[in-house]
Amino acid sequence: MNRFAALLDALLFTPSRNGKLRLMQEYFATVGDPERGWALAALTGELVFDAAKPNQVRGLAAARVDPELLEWSYDFVGDLAETVALIWPETAGGEDHVPSLAEIIEQLKRASRGEVGRVLEPWLDTLDATGRWALLKLVTGSLRIGVSARLAKTALAEWGGVEVDRIEEIWHGLAPPYRPLFDWLEGRHPVPETGELPTFCPLMLAQPIEDSDIATLDPSHYLAEWKWDGIRVQLVARGTERRLYSRSGDEIGAAFPEVLDAMPAAVTLDGELLVLRGGEVASFNDLQQRLNRKTPNPKLLRDYPAAVRLYDILREGKEDLRGFSFAERRRRLEAWYAREPRPAFDLSPLVPFTSWDELRELRDGARERGIEGLMLKRVDSTYVSGRPKGPWFKWKRGALTLDTVLMYAQRGHGKRSSFYSDYTFGAWRGDELVPVGKAYSGFTDEELRRLDRWVRNNTVQRWGPVREVTPKIVLEVAFDSVHRSTRHKSGVAMRFPRIHRIRWDKPVREADTLEALESLLS
Amino acid sequence: MPAPRPEIWIKTTSAGLYCEPGDFYIDPIRPVPCAVITHGHGDHARPGNERVLATPGTIAIMQERYGEAAGASLQPLAYGETVTAGDMTVRFVPAGHVLGSAQIVLEYRGSRVVVSGDYKRRPDPTCAPFEPCNCDVFITEATFGLPVFRHPPDTQEIDKLLHSLTLFPERCHLVGVYALGKCQRVLALLRRAGYEQPVYLHGALIKLTELYESLGVRLGPVLPLTGVAREALKGRIVLAPPSATADLWSRRLPEPLVAMASGWMRVRQRAKARGVELPLVISDHADWDELTATIDEVAAEEIWVTHGREEALVHHAIKKGYRARALTLTGFEEDE
Predict the structure, then answer these.
(1) Model pLDDT for residues A506-515, shown as the tens digit of each residue
(2) Where in chain A is the domain with CATH 1.10.3260.10?
(3) Which of A193, A272, A478, B59 is the 20 to 30 A CA-CA neighbour of A431?
(4) pLDDT in the model for residue B336
(5) Confidence class of residue B181 from pLDDT cuts 50, 70 and 90?
(6) Quick one: CA dihedral B135, B141, B145, B149, positive or negative?
(7) Which chain B residue has the Cα nearest residue A88?
(8) What is the pLDDT of residues A321-366, one digit of tens each?
């Protein structure tokens, strides 16, 4: 457990992706089975046991520590698991047996929710402060160390010298502690057989293309379809199993029972998950209502009905179609759908065109909800996992822009830790500036250096890593869309905001108003 | 005749703790005619006093920092020796905080008060260890006066730093340390752990490190950072004041990995908020267990608690049956 705790602790503090990869690789290389397999399960969110409730954890500490001291400490630390980990009295005495992660998980799986407290206590007595912290994070079900399942698999793949997609393909046919997987990666055994299991097949993704580059492509080589503003999903039905995967390979079927119920047998499909009302695509915000819930209630199901708009077919019966051209797969998709129409599914139509100019007009005219732009797919493209250069492009509608005023700047992380690189900007509401968003990209290194210098010379107030600046600079911000939000003081939130231009020249009084932003609400 | 109540002869004033029968102040926050100084940190030893009584180590540190302004008349008093001031006596006992740091033992008509200054209980190769001293009133610091503060063994923290150097050999490891005490202790701990490479120092750390060496504390090869090529700093340890680690200055270093050696690093959110990648929980202050054990050990009837989280330690002491109260003194900083 000590090695695992040290890994979690280091991952929490290491901001860079490469740093996190190196930490995980060192762990996989130097820790044995089954310990590292359980660690992998924890990092990828595959562990299943009844999580302890924060109140149980607090109760354990309250039985050992003066309640007032516990309260003061909690106020100071601000995180319950960490408070309890730090405050837990350490008994001087012989080094007791420190439990392994494997032992801990075995016992947790057997314990019911009511028993979790009882099994935790002896571990808390033998682990050190970092070990106790990691244990409590694990049992309360929230690691929050900035590592996605994908990143953990990437670390594993790089360490084992294989493509990460090879791991994704077999992942859902494996179970913790993944001994066959480690045997394969260390060259002792061939790749694990997953048989007829509904495994995830890593998605093919598109490269962005700009208006200026489109002319270099021959329009007759491409088919076009709308780029819908939902989330990319993969539907897999094999044997008796049905699965709905997100683009990162996470299972999300439980949150979308109407999609899972309507799923056909023996097929693998690629599509966009949307909220559809009478064939009309609702806003991404509506879909968000569903994405936030692990299991939806009947009202949510009624008000925000989910459906999948199909793009592609990857497998039919036992036949793998990924080696066929896109045109052929499209034909097979249409033929399949004609035989198997069903609720909660429809086809994403092709958009016919003869020239790029014609297509551009169609794109810019499409103000329909849920359309972000166009997808261009080479007629002859086979289905290749990852983001290959050339076969598929996403051609987005021009971004929305707004002139805002720089209000606060915060220091960045890692390479940017000495730079004020995260900017909060505002719009006018009468004579007052209201923060409307935050961006930390879109500028060059040279512009960053200049902004950083400017922030340092125009600071009004500081709070830790944040500086409030004199409102003197206009930032032209680009964003994809704007939605209502109760989380922001302004009542609206932008999607994908980035700094488009720094308007050193423009007077702040000429920046845009909050009403101007609200008029862009989708 | 019963001994006089301590609050009659030791008082808190706007200039700091005042000892009436000896007519001097302890660690005054503004210039006074006569000051007795516990140790050389800037919030305890300030310039401009007329007469100063302190250990030879503390006087050397004050002269290094303040030159002529250290005081018009500087009187060194070695650990264990006694001076008489008016009706009372003053003696210094090691506090284990930094080089020269002392507890002040005050005796007046049969009553003994010990002012701990800042202290710690675990061994530190750069200074004399804390000596517990029985007394009637113990005036203790409480910088880490919450039970969440329990410092791990310092060897474990140094190992974390050395391990990171092997895992990220292309990155310069920039460690934030206070110029007096922490800098030299980290150097000494690195040497004890077998690290023999030169350590590079920010300009603000050089003079005090040289002073430690001249007073016989061996710290191994150290080099000034000025003029060293960026490339040459890959995989090296650089020590700098905490404020320099996240600022313009650090841009001269190759891919700096920011570490910080401080007791505050125990709390993850604090470390995260400062942009620290490698928190090293190394403190020159007593942790909660040391504070509470020391209170029991000195067998005082009364505990006065100052600078830090007074309320928690007072609460604890009262529950254990001591008379305890918070002593409100201003001018002390939270940073260690």
Answers:
(1) 889 989 999 9
(2) 2-139
(3) A478
(4) 47
(5) very high
(6) negative
(7) B148
(8) 999 999 999 999 999 999 988 889 999 999 999 999 999 989 887 7
* Residue A145 near chain B (CB below 8 Å): no
Interface probe for B, chosen from A8, A9, A13 (most Cβ of B below 10 Å), is: A13
Q: How many angstroms separate the most distant Cα atoms in chain B?
A: 73
To the nearest whole angstrom, how far is the Cα of A480 from the nearest Cα of chain B? 30
* CATH architecture for segment(s) B6-148+285-326: 4-Layer Sandwich (3.60)
Q: How far apart are CA A477 and CA A479, in angstroms?
A: 7
Beta strands A267-277; B34-36: pairing state? unpaired
Could you give the ipTM of this predicted complex? 0.93
Nearest-Cα distance to chain B for A128, in Å, is 9
Mutate to test the interface with A, among B268, B280, B283, B320 (most CBs of A within 10 A): B268
pLDDT at A488: 78
Numbered ranges of CATH 3.30.470.30 in chain A: 207-396
* Separation between Cα atoms, residue A48 and residue A109, nearest integer Å: 7
**Does residue A370 surpass a pLDDT of 80?**
no
Name the average pLDDT for chain A.
91
pTM, 2 dp = 0.82
For residue B286, how many other CB atoms are within 10 A of its CB? 31
Measured CA to CA, the distance from residue A454 to residue A435 in angstroms comes to 19
What percent of chain A has pLDDT above 90?
Answer: 65
Task: With a cut of 60, say whether residue A225 has pLDDT above it.
Answer: yes
- Which residue shows structure tokens 């009882």? A118
What's the count of helices (H) and strands (E) in chain B, helices before strands?
Answer: 8, 19
Interface probe with B: pick from A417, A420, A466, A467, most Cβ of B within 10 Å: A417
Which of chain B's residues have a Cβ under 8 Å away from the Cβ of A67?
none
CATH 1.10.3260.10 fits A2-139, yes or no: yes
Spatial contact of A407 and A435, defined as CB atoms under 8 Å apart: yes
Give just the sign of the alpha carbon dihedral A427, A430, A433, A436: negative
CATH number of the domain located at residue range(s) A400-518 in this protein: 2.40.50.140
Chain B's closest residue to A77, CA to CA, is B267
Q: Identify the closest residue of chain B to A91 by CA–CA distance.
A: B289
State phi, psi for A151 to the nearest 5 degrees.
-65, -40
Helix or strand or coil: residue A370?
Answer: coil
From chain B, the residues in CB contact with A155 under 8 A are none
Short-list A488, A492, A486, CA closest to A520: A492
- Mean pLDDT on B97-121: 97
